[in-house]
Amino acid sequence: MKQSELFTKSFRTFPADxxxxxxxxxxxxxxxxxxxxxxxxxxxxxxxxLKKIExxxxxxxxxxxxxxxxxxxxxxxxxxxxSGRWEDKVxxxxxxxxxxxxxxxxxxxxxxxxxxYLMKSYISSYxxxxxxxxxxxxxxxxxxxAKSGILRTREFLMxxxxxxxxxxxxxxxxxxxxxxAYLKVFSRVGLGDKTFLTFASGGTFSKYSHEFQTIAPVxxxxxxLDRKKGLAVNKEVLREExxxxxxxxxxDLEEVKAVEVGNIFSLGARFSTDFNLxxxxxxxxxxxxxxxxxxxxxxxxxxxxxxxxxxxxxxxWPKTVAPFQVHLLELEKALGRKLYGDLQKAEIEVLYDDxxxxxxxxxxxxxxxxxxxxxxxxxxxxxxxxxxxxSEKNVKLADVKGVLRLLKNKG
Amino acid sequence: MKQSELFTKSFRTFPADxxxxxxxxxxxxxxxxxxxxxxxxxxxxxxxxLKKIExxxxxxxxxxxxxxxxxxxxxxxxxxxxSGRWEDKVxxxxxxxxxxxxxxxxxxxxxxxxxxYLMKSYISSYxxxxxxxxxxxxxxxxxxxAKSGILRTREFLMxxxxxxxxxxxxxxxxxxxxxxAYLKVFSRVGLGDKTFLTFASGGTFSKYSHEFQTIAPVxxxxxxLDRKKGLAVNKEVLREExxxxxxxxxxDLEEVKAVEVGNIFSLGARFSTDFNLxxxxxxxxxxxxxxxxxxxxxxxxxxxxxxxxxxxxxxxWPKTVAPFQVHLLELEKALGRKLYGDLQKAEIEVLYDDxxxxxxxxxxxxxxxxxxxxxxxxxxxxxxxxxxxxSEKNVKLADVKGVLRLLKNKG
Lengths: 411, 411
Hints:
Chain A has helices at about 20-30, 45-65, 75-80, 110-120, 170-190, 240-245, 270-275, 300-310, 335-345, 360-370, 400-410, and strands at about 30-35, 40, 65-70, 75, 95-100, 105, 130-140, 155-165, 195-200, 210-215, 220-225, 230-235, 255-270, 280, 285-290, 290-295, 325-330, 350-355, 375, 385-390, 395-400. By secondary structure, chain A is of the alpha+beta class. Chain A contains 11 helices and 21 strands. A 5-stranded mixed β-barrel of chain A has the order 9-10-13-11-12. At the A-B interface, strand 1, strand 2, helix 2, strand 3 and strand 4 of A face strand 1, strand 2, helix 2, strand 3 and strand 4 of B.
């Protein structure tokens, strides 16, 4: 797209009300806009990043058998009363509202209850199981203090997957698959090296739950990491008997700040018991469905990526989630237009800076926005194109056809 | 996908609490699930239809220069006070909620205010204009009575586009383009023949606004249609002087029930004045930005399509919005599997009914779900495949390769 048509522009200064440097770049470059504490709007550049992340997650959820659906925000009080989570003192992040007739509704902070209720219409036999469903849906959480930009917000997009299985064995098999899918997601968005499976407390139905924690100084969490083993525990479970159980030694653990980018829970029969979600097994015996839940917040992931991948000049997006693959800076009109046309023909996502501003401003803004490939054509470069990879230092002159071929193959 | 893995199943009976026949099919076939009056969940089949419609709208909005973004649901009271629409007596469909500190928030029913406010950061000169932005975002409207299934709900996905222009002339040019884009959308989803541009009252800033009304007995609206001219007026503007202005004659008008599937409004300087959203024109004179808004509800569109396209046995989806292109019924395992593999290889979206139920049940459910192409392979058909188009009566025997080729070309 032509940058002259993109309605956002970079601001000259950083926002006064953001602390984390990645977040400061996101606001300054026009990826997101703050509505109020804990509520952000995604502007075109940020929206593109969000959609890229969403699509990567979708592909991995589909690959493990997930079926996509879309539940509602507005929640029926009577459904939540069945699990005892309607009361604010039990679930303390509720936003509630009212119909005109004064009856109360909740805004969903999570979806175990409505989904368990829904499944009563569809699960009655072991033949109906397993079922894995997921959605990308906006969650609302009435946090007392919203902070860290888009890392912890009161309204956020969440991918939540729920598993319905006939036994601990069937549950465990999927749970391990989900772990693998999550690690693939974090690897594909560029956070693989910095994201660690972290043991957390499991509640009534399983020994542990698992978090995926990305090391970042801005993180709200503290984890204890065995780098060699690639495993961590969180504060809740930092106890001798648990470390022994996991084969970890206190002396090998490093205390680091991290952002929780995903979590997976075994729910056992907690909700199926509350909702009487039962199935008949092969012996015609009635048993409760065994459930699990699996969450990733695409917005938090975008924010984490910005915190992990930036330098003093701006963001350095991994190519899989960058808003565009190529930032083409026009220093000479005819040459720029020709290459823009060629890139479009090759179906390469390109932001074409065709604005009438100085070369220096264009270079600075390209660094700020952080698109992986920067291409510049000018009379100086002749028939060659100046290529700069955002994460590298050197600028190279290259043959236009060769660059097009390379981009088309590498995406 | 294999139908044995799809978690939804068709119910044997119609829902007791839905009146419209299309809606009754949608619930019975497992496209949607009712949470409460005016709130629905989209199950996998319904979600696929919703996404198809969304993508068609997205392509048409991009084609007229729309930039996609995502605004928030939670709304800041102070922003809405600027336009005077915070009060429930002014905007009577508000859902409101509260932060922990007791300060009030609104759930967005529309987005003129936050977007006008946002644009203050980005518009200052005529060079910044025009700007066209849109989103697919969930709206909340506290309707006293929600009815007609997914046609009028309290929570719904909406595509809302907003235009920001430097003059009535620039506004009008885009407004006409948007009209064209809307007609393309309705045509692409199969409603072209039944959807009419309808003149409605325009408010302070323009003579008329425009609705797009689809003729359907289930419609809540009454329009007065000149079929020959392909134009209609709604009740508000059914007055002699207006008919004369539009070149319509009362005698040529037919009174019909219709569903409003889209609407476009000229907003003039209403919001830019409230928010002081001004720009400097070429003579350095300060002028208010001229705005327009343009809405389509993808869920309502899905519901309208189901009302318009069904017969006594089920839904008859237009192929552009069908959840799958092909419904392959397995009557003989080896043959079915082979063709399923071939269809997948050819990247044709196929629902493969591999369940161990009777042929009669499979045929009945195929009619109920309403996928455009039904393919059946059995020992009886030998090397040929039995092809039935959902909207046609006849069943044909055809060569497998020929059918694959045809599907690949026709989509």
